[in-house]
Specification:
The chain is α/β, with parallel strands linked by helices. It has helices at residues 10-21, 33-40, 51-60, 70-73, 97-109, 126-141, 161-166, 178-188, 203-234, 238-246, 267-280, 286-298, 301-309, 337-347, 360-367, 401-407, 422-427; strands at 2-6, 25-29, 64-67, 79-82, 114-118, 147-151, 171-174, 198-201, 318-322, 351-355, 372-373, 386-389, 412-415, 431-433. The longest helix is centred in the middle third of the chain and has 32 residues, at 203-234. Bound molecules: uridine-5'-diphosphate-glucuronic acid. Uridine-5'-diphosphate-glucuronic acid binds next to helix 9. Uridine-5'-diphosphate-glucuronic acid binds at residues 121, 154-158, 214, 217, 221, 255-257, 259, 262-264, 266-267, 326-327. This is UDP-glucose 6-dehydrogenase.
């Protein structure tokens, strides 16, 4: 089989590379000349564990190639994935201009039957717009080439994307013809070894599945953040409550970790987009509106604790920040709660010394030199009035606390992810604040 993947961002690059890994002939296409030149040299635009090696291996085996030329690359393909960005517009709705531009380009240049698949997260109804855009271009050319559209939402998590793609829990494909279903079945056959299902459905349901999945996960997080905040007020410990409810399989023990709010490029964007889609169609997503509101508030929870502890006197204080990316194992800074916390501290005249294992370069695009970047996590602690644990990178889980206390001016820890044990920290002589744990 031959496929084209248009868009070499996070989803497109992982998708293309993983299909090549199982032996499919893949061309990844992007209009960004620099990006493609770099990819040809093995330089990736994102950090994702294992991806660089996989790109190199498949490029060498000539199963994976990169191109700026959609017109040529689309010819002879069985499937064309559209994996370009859908940035949120001013009003929160997904902007489809890139998706539809790709659809038009496919319509202008395709020479044979192809299944055109939306892989980006797109609102319900987008596949139909893609179909119309392609039809219009074919009509202009006077070409009578059959094609199908399909929706194949992506469920991969940053930091675990390769595993998620190669061993998916499920693959969801929305189709409107038997022919497209057959092509997609053949394409995904190598990924079904672990017995998880390939679920075919109609196109709008597939499009909705993606939003419903992310919205449900975001809801779990905001719900737990609300419970955590109440735990603090009532003198309960959310870590215990989490274990207590998580062992009920109907609830499940995943995605019930409270923290400083969800971030990243997906949950915030998709929750907003679903609220918007609903309101445009005369329906109000009341639960999701609250999910969003709780999340916005939660980003300030750690700052409020700091402000209370220091009685509002933050000017001139130095804060060590461990972790900047929105979650571990990624350099993604989009909607990262660290930015909200750091900006609030800076506004109060505090000094911030930050360290992140991979996201410092990315963070510097936004934070510039308003913060000092440490060589390692310990260096940030020198003369710090408090330590803020913001992203739960594995290397922060078990630091040498003797060294930590020696380096810090004041032994105060604000743990935004509850990775340390409150009782142990207090035994070690730290003033410890977690999320939803007794102070
Ligand atoms: C999310 C979904 O998990 C993927 O299934 C989906 O494919 C992806 O969005 C997407 O739409 O492309 P991702 O944004 O990479 O993946 O990150 P997650 O691991 O889901 O974490 C999202 C946020 O939730 C992070 O800020 C994380 O810190 C937070 N979180 C997660 C919590 O606060 N508590 C939890 O228990 C779990």
């Amino acid at each position: 089989m031959r496929i084209a993947v248009v868009g070499t961002g996070y989803v497109g690059l992982v998708t293309g590379t993983c299909f090549a890994e199982v032996g499919i002939d893949v061309t990844c296409i992007d209009i960004d000349v620099n990006k493609i030149e770099n990819l040809k040299k093995g330089i990736l635009p994102i950090y994702e564990p294992g991806l660089e090696e996989m790109v190199m291996r498949n490029t060498q085996k000539e199963r994976l190639s990169f191109s700026n030329d959609l017109a040529t690359s689309i010819q002879g393909c069985d499937v064309a994935f559209i994996a370009v960005g859908t940035p949120p517009g001013e009003d929160g709705s997904a902007d489809l201009k890139h998706v539809l531009a790709v659809a038009r380009a496919i319509g202008q240049h395709m020479t044979n039957y192809v299944v055109v698949v939306t892989k980006s997260t797109v609102p319900v109804g987008t596949a139909n717009k893609v179909r119309t855009a392609i039809e219009q271009e074919l009509e202009k050319r006077g070409a009578n080439i059959p094609f199908d559209v399909a929706s194949n939402p992506e469920f991969l998590k940053e930091g675990a994307a390769i595993d998620d793609f190669l061993k998916p829990d499920r693959i969801v494909v929305g189709v409107a013809s038997q022919r497209a279903e057959e092509v997609m079945s053949k394409l995904y056959k190598p990924f079904l070894m672990n017995g998880h299902p390939l679920i075919f459905m109609d196109i709008p349901s597939a499009e909705m599945t993606k939003y419903a999945a992310n919205a449900m996960l975001a809801t779990k997080i905001s719900f737990m953040n609300d419970i955590a905040n109440l735990c603090e007020i009532m003198g309960a410990d959310v870590n215990m409550v989490r274990k207590g409810i998580g062992s009920d399989v109907r609830i499940g023990n995943k995605f019930i970790y409270p923290g400083i709010g969800y971030g990243g490029s997906c949950f915030p964007k998709d929750v907003k987009a679903l609220i918007k889609t609903a309101s445009e169609n005369g329906y109000e997503m009341r639960v999701l509106k609250s999910v969003e509101e709780v999340n916005e508030n939660q980003k300030s929870v750690l700052f409020n604790k700091i402000n209370n502890h220091f009685k509002g006197e933050l000017a001139g204080k130095t804060f060590a920040v461990w972790g900047l990316s929105f979650k571990p194992k990624t350099d993604d800074m989009r909607e990262a709660p660290s930015l909200v916390i750091i900006n609030k501290l800076l506004e109060q005249g505090a000094k911030v010394k930050a360290y992140d294992p991979v996201a410092m370069k990315e963070a510097s695009h936004t934070l510039g030199n308003t913060v000092e970047y440490g060589k390692d996590e310990y260096e940030t602690l020198i003369d710090a009035d408090a330590l803020l644990l913001v992203t739960e990178w594995p290397e922060f889980r078990s630091p040498n606390f003797n060294v930590v206390s020696r380096l810090m001016k004041d032994k105060v820890v604000f743990d935004g992810r509850n990775i340390y044990d409150a009782a142990e920290m207090r035994e070690k002589g730290f003033v410890y604040y977690g999320i939803g744990v007794k102070q």
